[in-house]
Amino acid sequence: MNHLRIALHLATARMPVLPLRAGKVPFGNCRTCAKNACGGRPNMKTPGPCTCPGICHAWAAATTDPHVLNSPRWEAAWRQAAAVAYHPGGAGLTVVDLDNPTAVAWARAGLPATRIVPTTRGEHWIYQGVIPSANAVRPGVDVKSLMSYARWLGPGTGIVTELPDAVRALLVKEPSPVQLTRQAVTVPTPARGGECRHRTPTYLDRGIAMAVQQIAQAREAVHATVYRTFLAVLSTHGRCGCLTDTHVTRLFTAAQAKGESVRHCTDAWTNARTTLGL
């Protein structure tokens, strides 16, 4: 039961754990839970085991409860386990999984130092903070955090540092630039005298101020931060007609203060509108 001892040790550190079978994959759902027939984990959004007879639902089964880990329901799984895994997002962590020497070299050249765990083919770089998980964010690089699991391969070396913007930016996929004209950016016509139809004017002003601050505070990945901020503003206010030229100018000015060109601001704004269907 060596795997169980490891799991119990990790659980005391508030790290949600689960057993993996051969092939580094979770144990399959029981018949009751096959294809989410149990209704307990639609889209696997809710962590923790359901009331089925065995361990189910992959990462969502990860737990820190020693009673569950030692329960008869999990006993057979631990006997067959080939490894221990943990849910990084549940522990407040993000794992950058570097799958080959080229990916490792890229991380060493561009990412802040943090805790590093050697793997069979590369390294796990572990940061403090959570983001959505994604595979193949670049060649040989996966990001494992929320709704995912990572193998426990030991404590590693180094101090866990804050999740950098460079890793967050890996998940931002900006659409290809669309064909633009030389005309100024078209902004939705204000409605009801400039008031947002689903919020108050104060809500809009505060939202623009927060967006400007987010751009101003970007220390890296400015290009991605500008696009992501424009997308957030438009997703909230782009359809209600509350945005004015003044609001857009404030956003563009903040972006240009970080070194972005007028053309890039226009591209990012147009791409964000296209993404949202505006």
Describe the structure.
By secondary structure, the protein is α+β, with helices and mostly antiparallel strands. About 8% of the residues have low confidence. It has 9 helices and 10 strands. The termini are far apart. Helices cover 35% and strands 14% of the residues. It is elongated. Helix 6 packs antiparallel against helix 7 and helix 6 packs parallel to helix 8. Strand 5 and strand 6 form a beta hairpin. Strands 4, 5, 6, 7, 8 and 10 form a 6-stranded mixed β-sheet that branches. Strands 2-1-3-9 form a 4-stranded antiparallel β-sheet.
Rounded mean pLDDT is 82
Count of individual helical segments: 9
Indicate the structural class: alpha+beta
Shape: elongated
Largest sheet: 6 strands, mixed
Taken as a percent bin, the fraction of beta residues is: 5-15%
Give the % helix. Answer: 25-40%
The string of secondary-structure elements, in order, is HEEHHEEHEEEEEEHHHHH
Oligomerization state: single chain
| Ends distance | 57 Å
Number of strands: 10
Radius of gyration (CA) equals 23 Å
Low-confidence stretches: 41-45, 178-194
Give structural attributes.
single chain, 278 residues, six-stranded mixed β-sheet, four-stranded antiparallel β-sheet, 9 helices, 10 strands
Write the layout of secondary structure elements.
Layout: H1 2-12, E1 17-21, E2 25-26, H2 66-69, H3 72-80, E3 83-86, E4 93-98, H4 101-110, E5 115-118, E6 123-128, E7 134-138, E8 141-144, E9 150-151, E10 161-162, H5 165-168, H6 201-216, H7 222-237, H8 245-257, H9 262-276
